[in-house]
Protein backbone atom coordinates (compact mmCIF):
# COMPACT_ATOMS: atom_id res chain seq x y z
CA UNK A 1 0.00 0.00 0.00
CA UNK A 2 1.24 3.49 -0.87
CA UNK A 3 0.94 6.12 1.86
CA UNK A 4 1.26 9.90 1.80
CA UNK A 5 4.68 10.73 3.27
CA UNK A 6 3.19 13.48 5.47
CA UNK A 7 -0.34 12.41 6.44
CA UNK A 8 0.09 8.63 5.98
CA UNK A 9 -3.23 8.60 4.14
CA UNK A 10 -3.63 5.84 1.50
CA UNK A 11 -2.62 6.92 -2.00
CA UNK A 12 -3.93 5.83 -5.37
CA UNK A 13 -2.50 2.62 -6.78
CA UNK A 14 -2.05 1.34 -10.30
CA UNK A 15 -2.05 -2.03 -12.00
CA UNK A 16 -1.01 -1.79 -15.62
CA UNK A 17 1.20 -3.60 -18.13
CA UNK A 18 2.52 -1.99 -21.32
CA UNK A 19 4.45 -3.48 -24.23
CA UNK A 20 5.76 -1.52 -27.20
CA UNK A 21 8.23 -2.17 -30.00
CA UNK A 22 9.92 1.04 -31.15
CA UNK A 23 12.55 1.03 -33.94
CA UNK A 24 15.22 3.71 -33.46
CA UNK A 25 17.62 5.15 -36.02
CA UNK A 26 21.19 6.30 -35.44
CA UNK A 27 23.75 7.47 -37.99
CA UNK A 28 27.35 8.56 -37.58
CA UNK A 29 29.85 9.99 -40.06
CA UNK A 30 33.52 10.88 -39.71
CA UNK A 31 35.80 12.67 -42.15
CA UNK A 32 39.58 12.85 -41.63
CA UNK A 33 40.91 16.26 -42.56
CA UNK A 34 44.49 15.26 -41.71
CA UNK A 35 46.11 12.33 -39.94
CA UNK A 36 45.51 14.10 -36.60
CA UNK A 37 42.23 16.02 -37.12
CA UNK A 38 38.74 14.94 -38.12
CA UNK A 39 35.17 16.17 -38.40
CA UNK A 40 32.27 14.04 -37.22
CA UNK A 41 28.50 14.19 -37.47
CA UNK A 42 25.99 12.16 -35.46
CA UNK A 43 22.21 11.79 -35.57
CA UNK A 44 20.15 9.58 -33.27
CA UNK A 45 16.60 8.97 -32.11
CA UNK A 46 15.72 8.30 -28.50
CA UNK A 47 12.70 6.83 -26.71
CA UNK A 48 11.79 7.04 -23.01
CA UNK A 49 8.91 4.94 -21.68
CA UNK A 50 7.19 5.74 -18.42
CA UNK A 51 8.70 3.81 -15.50
CA UNK A 52 7.18 2.78 -12.18
CA UNK A 53 8.82 5.79 -10.49
CA UNK A 54 7.36 8.12 -13.12
CA UNK A 55 3.80 6.91 -12.72
CA UNK A 56 3.84 6.46 -8.93
CA UNK A 57 6.42 8.87 -7.44
CA UNK A 58 7.27 8.22 -3.78
CA UNK A 59 6.38 11.71 -2.52
CA UNK A 60 3.34 12.22 -4.72
CA UNK A 61 -0.33 11.72 -3.82
CA UNK A 62 -1.52 11.56 -7.45
CA UNK A 63 -1.20 8.41 -9.55
CA UNK A 64 -0.24 9.51 -13.06
CA UNK A 65 -1.92 7.15 -15.52
CA UNK A 66 -1.71 9.16 -18.74
CA UNK A 67 2.02 9.71 -19.29
CA UNK A 68 2.96 9.44 -22.96
CA UNK A 69 6.41 8.12 -23.94
CA UNK A 70 9.09 10.73 -24.57
CA UNK A 71 10.92 11.01 -27.90
CA UNK A 72 14.19 12.73 -28.73
CA UNK A 73 16.09 13.71 -31.87
CA UNK A 74 19.77 14.50 -31.29
CA UNK A 75 22.09 16.20 -33.77
CA UNK A 76 25.83 16.69 -33.13
CA UNK A 77 28.63 18.22 -35.19
CA UNK A 78 32.16 17.95 -33.85
CA UNK A 79 35.83 18.57 -34.56
CA UNK A 80 38.56 16.65 -32.75
CA UNK A 81 42.29 16.32 -32.95
CA UNK A 82 45.34 14.61 -31.52
CA UNK A 83 48.32 16.79 -32.45
CA UNK A 84 50.70 14.56 -30.52
CA UNK A 85 50.78 11.39 -28.46
CA UNK A 86 50.55 13.54 -25.34
CA UNK A 87 47.76 15.93 -26.29
CA UNK A 88 44.18 15.64 -27.57
CA UNK A 89 41.07 17.82 -27.78
CA UNK A 90 37.44 17.58 -28.84
CA UNK A 91 34.79 20.22 -29.45
CA UNK A 92 31.21 19.86 -30.64
CA UNK A 93 27.87 21.62 -30.94
CA UNK A 94 24.60 19.79 -30.40
CA UNK A 95 20.86 20.23 -30.69
CA UNK A 96 18.34 18.03 -28.87
CA UNK A 97 14.61 18.10 -29.65
CA UNK A 98 12.75 16.42 -26.75
CA UNK A 99 8.98 15.92 -27.17
CA UNK A 100 6.66 14.72 -24.38
CA UNK A 101 9.36 15.45 -21.88
CA UNK A 102 8.99 13.97 -18.37
CA UNK A 103 9.33 16.35 -15.47
CA UNK A 104 8.08 17.57 -12.14
CA UNK A 105 5.50 20.30 -11.67
CA UNK A 106 4.31 21.73 -8.37
CA UNK A 107 0.91 23.26 -7.65
CA UNK A 108 -0.91 23.64 -4.34
CA UNK A 109 1.89 21.91 -2.48
CA UNK A 110 1.54 18.79 -4.64
CA UNK A 111 4.43 17.67 -6.85
CA UNK A 112 3.63 15.39 -9.76
CA UNK A 113 5.60 13.77 -12.56
CA UNK A 114 4.15 13.86 -16.05
CA UNK A 115 4.51 15.17 -19.60
CA UNK A 116 5.53 18.81 -19.34
CA UNK A 117 5.81 19.72 -23.00
CA UNK A 118 8.46 19.94 -25.68
CA UNK A 119 11.94 21.33 -25.07
CA UNK A 120 14.97 22.11 -27.14
CA UNK A 121 18.55 21.97 -25.91
CA UNK A 122 21.32 23.84 -27.72
CA UNK A 123 24.85 23.44 -26.43
CA UNK A 124 28.59 23.39 -26.89
CA UNK A 125 31.00 20.79 -25.47
CA UNK A 126 34.73 21.46 -25.13
CA UNK A 127 37.29 18.97 -23.81
CA UNK A 128 41.07 18.72 -23.81
CA UNK A 129 43.85 16.71 -22.16
CA UNK A 130 47.60 17.20 -22.06
CA UNK A 131 50.22 14.93 -20.50
CA UNK A 132 52.60 17.40 -18.85
CA UNK A 133 55.40 14.86 -18.39
CA UNK A 134 55.21 13.72 -22.01
CA UNK A 135 55.11 17.26 -23.43
CA UNK A 136 58.15 18.32 -21.39
CA UNK A 137 60.29 15.19 -21.41
CA UNK A 138 58.94 12.92 -24.13
CA UNK A 139 58.55 9.15 -24.06
CA UNK A 140 61.67 8.56 -21.95
CA UNK A 141 60.37 10.78 -19.17
CA UNK A 142 57.00 9.04 -19.25
CA UNK A 143 58.61 5.60 -18.88
CA UNK A 144 60.66 6.84 -15.96
CA UNK A 145 58.29 9.12 -14.09
CA UNK A 146 54.82 8.16 -15.36
CA UNK A 147 52.03 10.33 -16.81
CA UNK A 148 50.69 13.54 -15.32
CA UNK A 149 47.57 14.45 -17.29
CA UNK A 150 45.84 17.80 -16.97
CA UNK A 151 42.32 17.49 -18.36
CA UNK A 152 39.25 19.65 -18.51
CA UNK A 153 35.75 19.78 -19.98
CA UNK A 154 33.21 22.56 -20.31
CA UNK A 155 29.58 22.48 -21.41
CA UNK A 156 27.38 25.46 -22.19
CA UNK A 157 23.69 24.60 -22.40
CA UNK A 158 20.69 26.68 -23.41
CA UNK A 159 17.62 24.58 -22.56
CA UNK A 160 14.07 25.90 -22.88
CA UNK A 161 10.51 24.63 -23.24
CA UNK A 162 9.06 25.59 -26.61
CA UNK A 163 5.55 24.19 -26.09
CA UNK A 164 3.32 23.08 -23.25
CA UNK A 165 2.40 24.75 -19.94
CA UNK A 166 6.03 25.63 -19.18
CA UNK A 167 6.85 27.43 -22.45
CA UNK A 168 9.77 29.79 -21.95
CA UNK A 169 11.00 28.09 -18.76
CA UNK A 170 14.07 25.88 -18.29
CA UNK A 171 13.74 22.08 -17.94
CA UNK A 172 14.72 20.55 -14.62
CA UNK A 173 18.38 19.75 -13.90
CA UNK A 174 19.68 21.71 -16.89
CA UNK A 175 22.47 24.05 -15.66
CA UNK A 176 23.75 26.58 -18.15
CA UNK A 177 27.40 25.96 -17.23
CA UNK A 178 29.14 22.72 -16.25
CA UNK A 179 32.92 22.64 -15.74
CA UNK A 180 35.11 19.66 -14.84
CA UNK A 181 38.87 19.91 -14.40
CA UNK A 182 41.33 17.39 -13.06
CA UNK A 183 44.88 16.27 -12.63
CA UNK A 184 45.62 12.54 -12.92
CA UNK A 185 48.93 10.82 -12.22
CA UNK A 186 49.53 7.32 -13.61
CA UNK A 187 52.62 5.20 -13.04
CA UNK A 188 53.28 2.06 -15.11
CA UNK A 189 49.63 0.98 -14.96
CA UNK A 190 50.20 0.23 -11.27
CA UNK A 191 49.08 3.48 -9.69
CA UNK A 192 46.41 6.04 -10.53
CA UNK A 193 45.85 9.14 -8.39
CA UNK A 194 43.30 11.76 -9.45
CA UNK A 195 42.28 15.20 -8.20
CA UNK A 196 38.91 16.18 -9.72
CA UNK A 197 36.92 19.39 -9.42
CA UNK A 198 33.37 20.04 -10.66
CA UNK A 199 31.45 23.30 -10.94
CA UNK A 200 27.70 23.37 -11.63
CA UNK A 201 25.83 26.66 -12.16
CA UNK A 202 22.46 27.33 -10.58
CA UNK A 203 19.42 25.58 -12.03
CA UNK A 204 16.01 24.20 -11.11
CA UNK A 205 14.85 20.78 -9.93
CA UNK A 206 11.37 21.15 -11.43
CA UNK A 207 10.00 22.23 -14.78
CA UNK A 208 7.89 25.16 -13.61
CA UNK A 209 10.95 26.78 -12.00
CA UNK A 210 9.48 27.56 -8.59
CA UNK A 211 11.80 29.29 -6.12
CA UNK A 212 11.72 26.48 -3.56
CA UNK A 213 13.05 24.09 -6.21
CA UNK A 214 16.06 26.23 -7.16
CA UNK A 215 19.50 24.64 -6.77
CA UNK A 216 22.28 27.20 -6.11
CA UNK A 217 25.60 26.92 -7.93
CA UNK A 218 28.13 24.69 -6.19
CA UNK A 219 31.73 23.44 -6.38
CA UNK A 220 32.93 20.02 -5.24
CA UNK A 221 36.40 18.44 -5.24
CA UNK A 222 37.25 14.73 -4.97
CA UNK A 223 40.42 12.65 -4.72
CA UNK A 224 40.57 9.03 -5.88
CA UNK A 225 43.31 6.42 -5.62
CA UNK A 226 43.73 3.07 -7.35
CA UNK A 227 46.88 1.01 -6.68
CA UNK A 228 47.68 -2.55 -7.69
CA UNK A 229 49.22 -4.27 -4.67
CA UNK A 230 49.88 -7.70 -6.15
CA UNK A 231 50.05 -8.30 -9.88
CA UNK A 232 46.64 -7.78 -11.47
CA UNK A 233 44.84 -9.67 -8.72
CA UNK A 234 44.78 -7.35 -5.69
CA UNK A 235 43.94 -3.64 -6.03
CA UNK A 236 43.57 -0.97 -3.38
CA UNK A 237 40.70 1.48 -3.96
CA UNK A 238 40.35 4.65 -1.88
CA UNK A 239 38.94 8.12 -2.14
CA UNK A 240 38.20 11.36 -0.35
CA UNK A 241 34.96 13.01 -1.51
CA UNK A 242 34.02 16.66 -1.06
CA UNK A 243 37.53 17.52 0.07
CA UNK A 244 36.68 21.07 1.18
CA UNK A 245 33.49 19.99 2.99
CA UNK A 246 31.27 22.06 0.70
CA UNK A 247 27.71 22.56 1.96
CA UNK A 248 25.44 22.02 -1.04
CA UNK A 249 22.59 19.98 -2.48
CA UNK A 250 21.99 18.67 -5.98
CA UNK A 251 18.45 17.30 -5.73
CA UNK A 252 15.15 18.62 -4.39
CA UNK A 253 12.17 16.50 -3.38
CA UNK A 254 8.58 17.47 -2.69
CA UNK A 255 9.26 17.41 1.07
CA UNK A 256 12.62 19.19 1.04
CA UNK A 257 16.17 19.17 -0.31
CA UNK A 258 18.34 16.08 -0.60
CA UNK A 259 21.63 17.36 0.86
CA UNK A 260 24.94 16.05 -0.42
CA UNK A 261 27.37 14.39 1.94
CA UNK A 262 30.01 16.53 3.58
CA UNK A 263 33.64 15.44 3.54
CA UNK A 264 33.75 11.63 3.51
CA UNK A 265 36.11 8.84 2.52
CA UNK A 266 36.09 5.22 1.47
CA UNK A 267 38.63 2.42 1.14
CA UNK A 268 38.49 -1.12 -0.13
CA UNK A 269 40.29 -4.04 -1.70
CA UNK A 270 39.36 -5.55 -5.06
CA UNK A 271 40.30 -9.17 -5.80
CA UNK A 272 40.42 -10.35 -9.43
CA UNK A 273 40.84 -13.98 -10.40
TrEMBL record:
Record's keyword annotation contains Transport: yes
What membrane topology is given? Multi-pass membrane protein
Any Pfam family hit: TonB_dep_Rec_b-barrel
Q: Which UniProt keywords apply?
A: Cell outer membrane, Ion transport, Iron, Iron transport, Membrane, Signal, TonB box, Transmembrane, Transport
What's one GO-annotated cellular component? cell outer membrane
**The TonB-dependent receptor-like beta-barrel domain covers which part of the protein?**
24-243
What's a Gene Ontology MF term here? siderophore uptake transmembrane transporter activity
Instruction: List locations, semicolon-separated.
Output: Cell outer membrane
Q: What InterPro entries would the database entry show?
A: Beta-barrel_TonB, Beta-barrel_TonB_sf, TonB-dep_rcpt-like, TonB_rcpt_CS
Whether Transmembrane counts among this entry's keywords is yes
Task: Indicate what this protein is called per its UniProt record.
Answer: Unannotated protein
